[in-house]
Design a protein that fits this description.
alpha+beta; Helix Hairpins; Heat Shock Protein 90; 3 domains; six-stranded antiparallel β-sheet; 13 strands; binds adenosine-5'-diphosphate
């Protein structure tokens, strides 16, 4: 059976390619073998011939200057058909397989040929180690034995060459990996450094904000105290003075509120906000909260309340939630002329505080930005405000695991809702 049919020519070519030997430069190790083979067999020519798809290529050629010939004329291509044996042709000129072969009829005038197949560990015959003479001849048994031994040496060299190439490839990959790791390491170091810098900067900012708020609060308190003292000493102050005092008081109030908002923002930024929820009756909480609004803030209006559902205890941080609800009610008073309504509803798994007014409402395009810091709706810019209250309220509500939202109609009014989860009842 022809060799190609036995193992598969495609696999044999692939095996040969895996050695990466074709078209490499001459090497001493291989040249020494062909020199030795020629010497042992007493022949002028010895070749290490590798049979590629369309050619035979000589890794070493002793006594010959050409480096390759077409595969169809290669005697070696015949030799690899019987991988376990030496192919010996005593006189190629009389062998009908080679009639008209230009390598026989012309240069290099092959007459005698003996080739031992180069078989790799998987049984693929990659080529041959052969000896050639220009006259008929015959190898002795010992010469054949030595030619076979030298053929095995060629395969050992080929395997070595391939292992070295693989090792070199692995080494290069390792080197690249190492470089990549170094680059990544440097990047992580820089990132770490930046994070430390950012943390330091953020701490500096928090300290600065706390310091500035404190420094402003002291003079504001003394201005307020002075206003109180003037009021106390002037039993019946003239109207312009009362008016000025009221203006001063209003401005001091606004500035104090702004300072406390900025202070809270600093705490949120630094992640230093204390959250301390305790079970609490939300109805009582709302009533207490409404009671804190002064007559001046109400401006003759009433905050209406209504409750719905089964009363239950809710875990609330009263300080934080007061801020959020007071902000909603203050806005309802600020952005509307009517009476705001605070509606409390208990549901099985949550509680909702809804604050409704019939004021200026909010343009639809502004609603998505309402709970971000310093945002002010386009229709409210002539009314004093900072755009911080809703942003802070949202942070506080989210700390409770709840959410805040709004439904509003421009020029008709708004309803802001704070929805908080209740603690599930404990099973006995
Ligand atoms: P401030 O009221 O100090 O500007 P807020 O964060 O509390 O800050 O509110 C942000 C913006 O949302 C306000 O500037 C206003 O444009 C709009 N807004 C809030 N509440 C109402 C409301 N009840 N009616 C109409 N607009 C409102």
């Amino acid at each position: 059976m022809p060799y190609s049919a036995q193992i598969g020519e495609v696999d044999r070519i692939r095996a040969l390619a895996s050695y990466n030997i074709l078209d490499t430069l001459p090497e001493e190790e291989y040249d020494a073998i062909t020199q030795l083979a020629a010497l042992i067999c007493q022949m002028p020519i010895s070749l290490i011939s590798l049979i590629d798809e369309h050619r035979q290529w000589f890794k070493s050629a002793h006594g010959l200057t050409v480096r390759q010939t077409p595969r169809e004329y290669a005697l070696c291509a015949h030799a690899i058909q019987t991988p376990d044996e030496i192919m010996e042709v005593h006189d190629a000129r009389t062998d009908e397989r080679f009639i008209g072969n230009p390598l026989i009829t012309g240069d290099p005038n092959v007459v005698f040929y003996a080739g031992t197949p180069l078989v790799d560990a998987n049984g693929y015959a990659l080529g041959t180690l052969c000896v050639i003479d220009h006259k008929p001849s015959q190898l002795t048994a010992q010469q054949k034995q030595l030619l076979k031994a030298l053929g095995r040496q060629v395969v050992v060299q080929l395997e070595l060459h391939r292992s070295q190439a693989l090792l070199q490839g692995a080494n290069e990959q390792l080197l690249m990996l190492n470089q990549e790791l170094q680059v990544r390491g440097q990047f992580e170091q820089r990132l770490q450094h930046r994070l430390v810098q950012e943390k330091e900067l953020s701490e500096q900012k928090t300290r600065f904000v706390a310091m500035v708020s404190h420094e402003f609060r002291t003079p504001l308190t003394s201005i307020q105290l002075s206003v109180d003292l003037v009021r106390l000493h002037l039993t019946d102050p003239p109207q312009p003075i009362t008016k000025h005092l009221a203006v001063i008081e209003e401005q001091v109030g606004k500035f104090t509120d702004l300072l406390s908002d900025v202070l809270i923002l600093g705490q949120i930024d630094a992640g230093k906000l204390l959250f301390n929820p305790l079970p609490c009756d939300a109805g009582v909480f709302v009533e207490e909260l409404i009671g804190t609004f002064t007559a001046a803030q109400l401006g003759g209006r009433t905050i209406l309340t209504s409750v719905e559902g089964m009363i239950q205890l809710v875990p609330l941080d009263k300080k934080l939630l007061s801020y959020a609800l007071i902000n909603l009610v203050s806005n309802a008073l600020k952005y509307s002329a009517g009476d705001p309504v605070v509606h409390l509803s208990y549901e099985p798994d949550g509680i909702t505080f809804a604050v409704t007014d019939t004021g200026i409402g909010i343009p639809a395009a502004d609603i998505p930005h309402l709970f971000t810091s310093f945002f002010r709706a386009t229709n409210a810019l002539t009314i004093a405000g900072t755009g911080l209250g809703l942003f802070i309220a949202r942070q506080f509500v989210e700390l409770h695991g709840g959410h805040i939202d709004v439904t509003s109609q421009h020029n008709q009014g708004s309803t802001f809702r704070i929805v908080l989860p209740t603690v599930p009842a404990q099973a006995d």
